[in-house]
Automatic annotation (TrEMBL):
This is Lysine exporter protein (LYSE/YGGA). GO terms for molecular function: amino acid transmembrane transporter activity. The chain crosses the membrane at residues 12-32, 44-67, 73-94, 115-134, 154-175, 187-207. It comes from Delftia acidovorans (strain DSM 14801 / SPH-1). GO terms for cellular component: plasma membrane.
């Protein structure tokens, strides 16, 4: 019976997490871009997995209830995140439209090489300033995990961590396999365009979610 309960809790964490993160979102596009460029890929994967585990664990431990009781808690942070995402999206669209083909091919779609701190800090903002993260990862996954009994809560978190690790490793591997495709500047323009539109849409949604309670 105990083994069955452990397996059930692990599988619940794995399937719920995988179903939520397997989508073309800003975080996934950013990791894919770094994988294609071959820059700080392991650090990006590590950040994504660790942040998922921490946020889900916080939700299981009670942050889901805290956020539910205090809907204005992250309003100003999300507004700052909206501004950042807006700027990032505009820069991506500028690269798509204005950067010379030779520069795109030589630099891997970006204007200058970036250090580890710059890459991870950008990924951190994309991750943490997205209300979708708190709605899905903390509130939804945390609430489901909190209903598990005793130590099974943390078995659920381990299952979610396994799903997160599997997905981001697969995404990094896919990026490496597509490196030949991205030797063409046109491929970078398409990816920049997709990234820019995604970031602007996310910025709009983030700003709207932060301002709506204040207006109402």
């Amino acid at each position: 019976m105990w083994t069955a309960n452990v397996s059930s809790s692990w599988l619940a964490g794995f399937t719920v997490c995988l179903s939520l993160i397997v989508s073309i979102g800003a975080q996934n596009l950013y990791v894919l871009r770094q994988a294609v460029q071959g820059q700080h890929v392991r650090a990006c994967v590590a950040w994504c997995v660790v942040s998922d585990v921490v946020l889900i664990g916080l939700g299981v431990a009670g942050m889901a209830r805290l956020l539910g009781d205090n809907p204005d808690l992250a309003r100003y942070l999300t507004l700052g995140g909206a501004l950042f995402l807006l700027a990032y999206g505009l820069i991506a669209l500028w690269r798509m439209a204005m950067a010379p083909d030779a520069q795109l091919a030589a630099s891997g779609g970006q204007l200058a090489p970036r250090g580890l701190l710059g890459v991870v800090s950008t990924l951190a903002v994309i991750t943490l300033f997205n209300p979708h993260v708190y709605l899905d990862t903390v509130l939804l996954m945390g609430s489901i995990g909190a209903r598990q009994e005793g130590v099974l809560k943390w078995v659920y978190v381990v299952g979610a961590a396994s799903a997160s690790l599997s997905w981001f490793v697969a995404l990094a591997f896919a990026g490496r396999r597509m490196k030949r495709l991205f030797e063409k500047p046109q491929a970078w323009r398409v990816l920049d365009g997709l990234t820019g539109v995604m970031m602007l849409a996310l910025a709009w949604w983030v700003a709207g979610s932060a301002l709506a309670p204040a207006v109402g």
